[in-house]
Write a structure and sequence with these properties.
The chain has about 100 residues and is mainly α.
Length: about 100
Amino acid sequence: MKIFQKLQAIPMYNYPSSLNLIQNFIYVPLCFMYIIPVSRLELFNNSIPNEVTMMSKRPFVIMGLLDCITCMLLTFSAVYLPGSLLILLPQAAIPISMFFSN
């Protein structure tokens, strides 16, 4: 996955913001293309029960915004960093998140 991210970032070196917008505006509708039919039509043995749809959406919005920020930062790093550091960068988030979770 990271290899393809670096390969798409090479020709877009001068346009990381455009690349980031394209990725985010494609990612969000693709996610809703499978979430909405599964929840509305009760596909896959009702894998999203009604109790989940009645929950507060605020934690999910916060997680989505944080995921969007992560995607944005990884896109900018893919443009300017060598490929080997792209693998190590998400791994560095593990000890940092462990530190902040205490």
